[in-house]
Write a structure and sequence with these properties.
heterotrimer, A mainly alpha (128), B mainly alpha (130), C alpha+beta (232), A: 128 residues, mainly alpha, 3 helical TM bundles of succinate and fumarate reductases, 77% helix, 0% strand, elongated, C: 232 residues, alpha+beta, Ubiquitin-like (UB roll), Fumarate Reductase Iron-sulfur Protein, Chain B, domain 2, 2 domains, 5-stranded mixed beta sheet, 32% helix, binds protoporphyrin IX containing FE, binds iron/sulfur cluster, binds FE2/S2 (inorganic) cluster
């Protein structure tokens, strides 16, 4: 009979995990307001079938441009970090091989970086 | 030799009769993953706005194609569920006493989510018919 | 009443994988699943293996998955669980034989949270006094019998047995919130590990499974908050 002894928790002094837990809740509370508003705005106020280039361009360059660019940028950063950290939670649960876990986490970090860079680029540089 | 306990985590997860909290967690997790993958796609399609009008219009079928509507609706439901269930988790985490009302709160989440989803799907259908 | 028990069997010396076997017995509605299992062992199949001791919900040795949920066999009456009963070992721990699992990984997690009274002050003449209000803060968590129903109902534990698990957190809670104890900071530091409290996804299976009706998820949330506020 072989017994598989589990790793047990040790004091580490690291605050990463508690901050990440707190971030999921703080960002989640903000996202709840912002995402629900975003959905109702796009589906109800604008209407899915009416979405086109002019609608998006208009809201970034029109009179409310600063507001919409800030809104979209905040949403982008909050959601990307929240979502990728959430995927990290899931990989921590299900991927046990240390090597694979490191590879997947590096990929998650890379995707997060690309999301913020690509999304941020268009929000900042769009000029009609 | 012993039966490997790890082998069964998927079947354990699916077969355990854990009640509303268990299913809430499965949906919260699937919803979160679904939204996260959609967000990647969404950032790419909006990035095309910056590339050119034509490049963005190439991708507009995502929002216009009636055949893709059910996918959008599933996503809308997923977002509402994840958002409301997330709020429930946040409330219970910061007021642990609220875990005593787990069933009531989880049921409330379902009611609000269904109302919101039916509303938005209705709005979409009305838009398609108009 | 006639009861059919579908039991998961596994003998490591003979079987390559667990399999199901059905037994039919005569039982009273007020008999417990444990009575049924012992009856089968006595009258039909002496090789059926399970743990039990007190038979009164105190020793915590007969946790099993009964009809899909973790319970103590000695606290499950046939009138509650019905006359078609499925019995399997609790999940997430290695099966030694039939319904007996190796509790050692579970106990290792238990030991890791310093589940004993820590106070270096010299003992006072009579006793270490505590107000009624302070005592009530951990009243719930003193009731744990370490049966393992909670930890082995937790999807996170099934996926990663490095997760310390609800039972160990309940045991830590019992000392962390004891005003006479001085080891709280140390325990909170241990539970702040990535495999500590943060792995709990508030799924609530543990609370539903606890035969002592301990509000497990609530206790875990109190520990999380305590760590959060000690770090912020
Ligand atoms: C709309 C408001 C939202 C709220 C209130 C919210 C809330 C939460 C909370 C509290 C958690 C932590 C769950 C836990 O630790 O047990 C979580 C996890 C997660 N969230 Fe969100 N979230 C929201 C939006 C989003 C968005 C937009 C995404 C995707 C980009 C997302 C993806 C995820 C993922 C992948 C997880 C991990 C799931 C898991 O560990 O099971 N969430 N969310
Ligand atoms: S509440 Fe936490 S510890 Fe309990 S079953 Fe759920 S995830 Fe596991
Ligand atoms: S908390 Fe409840 S279920 Fe968990 S080990 Fe203690 S008595 Fe058993
Ligand atoms: S035999 Fe002791 S708790 Fe069931």
């Amino acid at each position: 009979m072989t017994t598989r002894y589990a790793r047990t928790p040790k004091p580490s002094g690291s605050t990463f995990e508690v901050l990440s837990w707190f971030y999921m809740r703080a960002s989640g509370a903000l996202l709840a307001l912002m995402v629900v508003f975003h959905l109702i705005w796009m589906h109800y106020v604008i209407g899915l079938t009416n979405i086109d280039f002019d609608v998006i361009a208009g809201r970034w360059t029109g009179p409310g441009g600063i507001f919409w660019r800030s809104y979209d940028l905040t949403l982008l950063i909050l959601a990307s970090l929240h979502g990728m950290n959430g995927i990290r939670f899931v990989t921590d649960d299900y991927i046990h091989n240390r090597g694979w876990r490191a590879v997947v986490k590096a990929l998650i970090a890379l995707v997060l970086l690309l999301m913020v860079v690509f999304g941020g680029l268009v929000i900042f540089t769009f000029n009609g | 030799m012993s039966a490997n306990p790890k082998k069964g985590f998927v079947s354990s997860t699916l077969s355990y009769k854990g009640g509303i909290g268990h299913w809430s967690w499965i949906l919260h997790r699937l919803g979160g993953l679904g939204i996260a993958f959609f967000l990647i796609l969404h950032i790419l399609d909006i990035f095309m706005v910056g590339v050119s009008r034509a490049a963005f219009e190439e991708l507009l079928f995502i929002y216009h194609e009636p055949l893709l509507r059910p996918v959008i609706w599933a996503l809308v439901f997923g977002v509402f569920y994840h958002a409301l269930n997330g709020l429930r988790i946040i409330i219970q985490d910061f007021w642990p006493h609220m875990f005593r009302y787990q069933k009531q709160l989880a049921t409330t989440v379902w009611v609000i989510v269904i109302v919101l989803t039916v509303f938005l799907v209705g709005v979409d259908i009305a838009g398609m018919l108009a | 009443m006639q009861v059919t028990l579908k039991i998961q069997r596994f003998n490591p010396e003979k079987d390559s994988a667990p399999y199901w076997k059905e037994y039919t017995i005569e039982a009273e509605p007020t008999d417990r699943v444990l009575d049924g299992l012992l009856k089968i062992k006595l009258e039909q199949d002496g090789t059926l293996t399970m743990r039990s001791s007190c038979a009164h919900g105190i020793c915590g040795s007969d946790a099993m998955r009964i009809n899909g949920v973790n319970r103590l066999a000695c606290k499950s009456l046939f009138q509650e669980v019905g006359n078609n009963v499925t019995v399997e070992p609790i999940a997430g721990l290695p099966v030694i034989k039939d319904l007996v699992v190796d509790m050692e990984p579970f106990m290792e997690h238990y030991r890791s949270v310093l589940p004993f009274f820590i106070n270096d002050d010299p003992p006072p003449e009579k006793e270490r006094l505590q107000s009624e209000e302070d005592r009530l803060k951990f009243e719930e968590t003193t009731k744990c019998i370490l049966c393992g129903c909670c930890t082995t109902s937790c999807p996170t534990f099934w996926a990663t047995d490095a997760y310390v698990g609800p039972a160990a957190i309940v045991q830590a809670h019992r000392f962390i919130f004891d005003s006479r104890d001085q080891g709280s900071a140390q325990r909170l530091e241990i539970l702040a590990d990535p495999d500590g409290v943060w792995r709990c996804r508030t799924i609530f299976n543990c609370t539903n499974a606890c035969p002592r009706e301990i509000k497990v998820t609530e206790a875990i949330a109190e520990v999380k908050k305590e760590i959060l506020f000690s770090k912020l």
